[in-house]
Amino acid sequence: MLSDPKAKEIIRALQTHASSKCPDEQLFATLAYNPHLGAPGACLRVHERDDEGVDVSRVQNLIRYKKWNGKDCPTKTRRSICILGSMSLSSLKQAQELFANKFHEDYYPEGYDCLELYLFERTYNPQPFDTTPYASLYCSQEHL
């Protein structure tokens, strides 16, 4: 997917604005929610929470683990987002989200290292994985 000419063009465009945006975070969303780009697994349609007839339980945001506005933040916030660290590990291990936002390499870096080790161990010592929260999402059932 990342070697596709359209994806490369998007990556170049995002890198152009990297100082003011988050290109790594935007790439996945751009490919996933623009089916005309042809990325495998792209959602065919975006279902908004306030659309008529939408089942809100099927549009949950399970992509990024993120704590806004200092809500239950055991560390500090930057731009209204909790900076994750070692104190966040227990909740991160229980989270259903696929990515974690936001770590800083110079702020409790051992938290990121410990999470990386935890994911490594899960990869080589697989535990049962409940796909139920993901299987019912609109995008899981309506995709390329």
Rg is: 17 Å
Shape annotation: globular
How many beta-strand segments?
4
Number of helical segments with 4 or more residues: 6
Residue fraction in strands: 5-15%
Distance between the termini: 13 Å
Strand order of the largest sheet: 1-4
Structural class: mainly alpha
Mean pLDDT value = 86
Specify the biggest β-sheet: 2 strands, parallel
- Which percent range fits the helix content? 25-40%
Number of spatially distinct domains: 2
Unreliable spans are none
Q: Spell the H/E element sequence.
A: HHEEEHEHHH
Describe this entry's structure for a reader.
- The protein is mainly α and 144 residues long.
- The protein has 2 domains: 1-42, no CATH class; 47-144, no CATH class.
- Helix content is 36%, strand content 7%.
- The protein is built from 6 helices and 4 strands.
- The strands form 2 sheets. The protein has a two-stranded parallel sheet.
- Strand 2 and strand 3 (81-83) form a beta hairpin.
- Helix 1 runs antiparallel to helix 2.
- The longest helix is centred in the last third of the chain and has 16 residues, at 109-124.
- The protein is globular.
- The protein starts with a helix and ends with a helix.
